[in-house]
Amino acid sequence: MEGSNAETELGVSVGSIRITDVTQDGDLLTFAITSQKLNGSAGVCVFRTYDDFDWLQQSLFSQENLPGLQGIIFPPLPSKAFPSQSNTQTKTLKQLGFLALGQDWQSYCKALEFYLQQVAAHPTLCKSKALDSFLVNSESPGKQRGKKGIFNRLSQAVEEMRKESHKDVDNFFQNERNKNTNVASLSKVATEKLLDVVMTEQKLALACGHFSTSLHLCVNQDDADAVAFSKICLKLSDIIEAVKRNFEKVASNNLSTLGLGLDLESRYQEAEKEMLFRRTCKLIELETVKKNTEKAKANKREVMEAFQKAVEKEFNQISSVAKQEIERFHSSRVNVLQNFLIGWCEQQLNTAKEFAELYSQHLEACRNMYLD
Amino acid sequence: MAASSERSPPPFPDSEEPELLEDSDDGADAFTGTSISEMDSPSPDTARPPKDIFNDPPEDIFNDPLSNINSEPQKKVDTKIASPSSDEAVDLFSDPLDDDSDVISSPEVQNPMPDLLSEPVEVPKSDFKGEPPVQKNATRQQEIFEDPPKTSSKSSSVKKAASSELFGDDDDEEDLFKEPPKVGTKKPQPSGPPVDVFTEVISDVKVKPQVKDDPTDLFAEEALSAPAPKPSASSSSRTNGVHSEEQDLFSEATVELSLDSPHNDRKKKDAVKPSVSAPAAPAASSSSKAQSKTLEELEEEESEDKFDLNISVTNPEKVGDGMNAYMAYKVSTQTSLTMFRSKTFTVRRRFSDFLGLYEKLSEKHSQNGYIVPPPPEKSILGMTKVKVGKDDPSSAEFVERRRGALERYLQRVVTHPSLLQDPDVREFLEKEELPRAVSTQALSGAGFLKMLNKATDAVSKMTIKMNEQDVWFDEKIQDVENEEQHLRKLHVMVESLVSHRKELSGNTAVFAKSVAMLGSSEDNTALSRALSQLAEVEDRIEQLHQDQASNDFFTFSELLADYIRLLGAVRGCFDQRMKSWQRWQDAENMLQKKREAEAKLLWANKPDKLQQAKDEIAEWEAKVTQYERDFERISATVRKEVIRFDKEKTRDFKKQIIKYLESLLNSQQQLIKYWEAFLPEAKAIA
């Protein structure tokens, strides 16, 4: 979640990663991804499907020889979109939220783009070979399906309830877990509510459109009075049309800035939660091992102690990585949110000004309208 | 009188003399106006048998001059009176125009009196053949009787009261005896023969000191008030024959005095007795075009001063408890129109009073082709909520909505130049206590709609039957129907717009809350503060949306609802016109049948029944002429009304659109303020 100033070891410029195009073929979305090395070589453009993204994520999860891998907050990958369903259908909306809105999957692309940038900006993950091959190889890497990572979400969900409330040995993590649970749910709610707002704005824009169109029905050129009235109706139609565009603009502003920001925030909170959960799992494992070691008979004690040490070491590594990650996460998320908020505010301000100007023009025109 | 002769000296003798010649009028008749005899004659017809008048000679005398003053010269009634003094009368009454005193002092003046005395018996009877515009007279009289107390503070009150009684006399014996002195006291002095009669009368009545002067005063008053109220008075009589103004009595007199100018004459006649059959009037031969033109001119004149009348309906207040509770509204009027007692006044009215006003108005005016603005429907559901619920926001909205609708309703009524003149309107605005309106149930919700639908059906049925000669109407009826459909459609759209706005406002509020929560559990202080600021901004935006929702509602939704109702009234007008056409056609058919019958009689050589058949033909011919004129008149009125309605509609919509734009602009400016205030907060996060 860091800005574009971060460099990767591969020399990919984070800011240059862009999803420039998306094509839809039935249920399959293909994204055109361009990126550029920092050393100034020509840009590369590759075509990837969602499966490729999924492969990348799994590869990142299952990297070997990385101590404390489980302590990393992995950038969240948006869930899979099913474009054959209309993108306003309730199911898709529920699943994707904001990402389902916007024309031609724009917000979805934005979210994927953001995901890639975050991976490339991550100090550890950027070193992954998988990322390099994802961005550069013209061959689609998704075909060689990576093995399901150690972090299977499904199995997680089952255990979650049981382990989530497990008391932590470390106050820092205990606090972080509490806060995370709280913020994650709140940001999710806020995102949903903003989504409602945006949906309503779109409905309003639609209603305005209907109203504006229907006003044309009243046009009648029979006599002078009818012409005058028609003039009024057409004027009103124009005005309602302007109101409609205003709603559309406001809705798209909400969507493209604060909406995406809140969505990202809520998904990142989830990602942090997952990381904390993995750590908690490790903690529980460690505690079990400790208990077993104590109970173990003398002949097996040595083996157990060695095992316990290994687990303890692993846990400590995870914890230390997790601490760094959490700090990094907190500082960057404030930045990201700030950027979204500022962008949002500026856009809304501009829109408001633009339409205030437009309305006052209409008002002037209306007042000067000659009718009789 | 002097005034009138000054105003129109040439037409006076010109028009009078031919009439006299043609009609061989009684002298008194020559000295005529139309309205009073017309007014008077039907009222005895309905309210009191004519015998009253004739039983009592003195009454008769005093009735007669009055009715003479006003009675139309061309009445067939008059033709029956073989007046020996008719020639004299011409001199008599053309002379006095120059000088009131002449009338009074001239010995000749009394000459017609005995004549009248001797023969009046037939006069009214034949008069009464005409079909009475009953209700009009009734209301008029009622109004006349209410007048005196209102004006009693004025010095001229006695005269006014007296004169009003003169006009409304037949109902009240006392009135009859009060009047005479004024006419009688003066007249007997110089006169010889009729003294007996008059002295007899005088002895019956207590003569006040000033009574003596009254006649002159009366005339002076007439002369004085003559020029000023003329436009409004004459137009008021034109509109419906119901005289609402205080000066009515005098202005009426004025009109009568100047009746001899053909224009006024016709206006008067048309206005006062639209449905009275007074055919064979030589003066009535003018085309309806010329007539409608003068009407338009009159309206133009009037439209200039009609705007100085502001009505507001405020302070809805629940009166009583439980299911007997009702809402009372304060109706405040601010005006400089002279027809009202004062410049500002306030009354309290309840909803059924508004409905009652509508019923009265529609009963009187819709048959003449006027578009009577309909009031908001009764809403049993809404009102029950108000009665039961205490501070339910939806019932508050209901009350506010109804208040607005009532206000617009009243404003529409008073901007109608003809309805403004109606005494019921004035009474509604001014009078402290109104008699409780009854039977408004018929107008409640569904019933009202049903009524409209019925009207619609009737119209559509009749359209098939009616062979429309007038392309304008043909197109207009179609237009109105289309327009109503469009407006209904638009209304649905606006309703959905409003409900979406409300939804947006609700969603924004929820979002604001969740942002506030998010802010409160945020660690980063700057971000936390920014989020709570954001929550506040969203709260304000929610308020904006809410305001805008009610703006949308009150500017467009209600406007459209009003016009859907009004279009119903417009169709009602077309309906009335159809009815009138139908009546004309029926009469035409009947006449045809009578003629055929006559032909058969001729063929069969049955002279005994021939006369009856001829009479019937004459009667039906008269009816056909009358109905045709009625139809022409109602067509002209409807046409004028629809044009007025279209203009009004355009103006109304424009006004609302400007209002709407202003509110939109205002919202945007508020938004700009909010965002501008929030931007530094967002930037300060870091």
TrEMBL record, chain A:
Lineage: superkingdom: Eukaryota
This protein's record includes keyword Transport: yes
Segments forming domain PX: 1-142
Chain segments annotated as transmembrane: none
SUPFAM superfamilies named in the record: PX domain
Keywords: Protein transport, Transport
Family note: Belongs to the sorting nexin family.
Identification of the protein by name: PX domain-containing protein
Organism: Cirrhinus molitorella
Lineage: Eukaryota, Metazoa, Chordata, Craniata, Vertebrata
Automatic annotation (TrEMBL), chain B:
A Pfam family of this chain: PX
Annotated membrane topology: Peripheral membrane protein
Keywords, sorted A to Z: Acetylation, Cell projection, Endosome, Golgi apparatus, Membrane, Phosphoprotein, Protein transport, Transport
GO biological process terms held by the UniProt record: early endosome to Golgi transport; protein transport
CDD domains: BAR_SNX1
Subcellular location: Cell projection, Lamellipodium; Early endosome membrane; Golgi apparatus, trans-Golgi network membrane
Record bears the keyword Magnesium: no
SMART domains the UniProt entry points to: PX (SM00312)
Span of the signal peptide: none
GO-annotated cellular components: cytosol; early endosome membrane; Golgi apparatus; lamellipodium
Entry keyword Transport: yes
Family: Belongs to the sorting nexin family.
Protein name per UniProt: Sorting nexin-1
Organism field: Cirrhinus molitorella (mud carp)
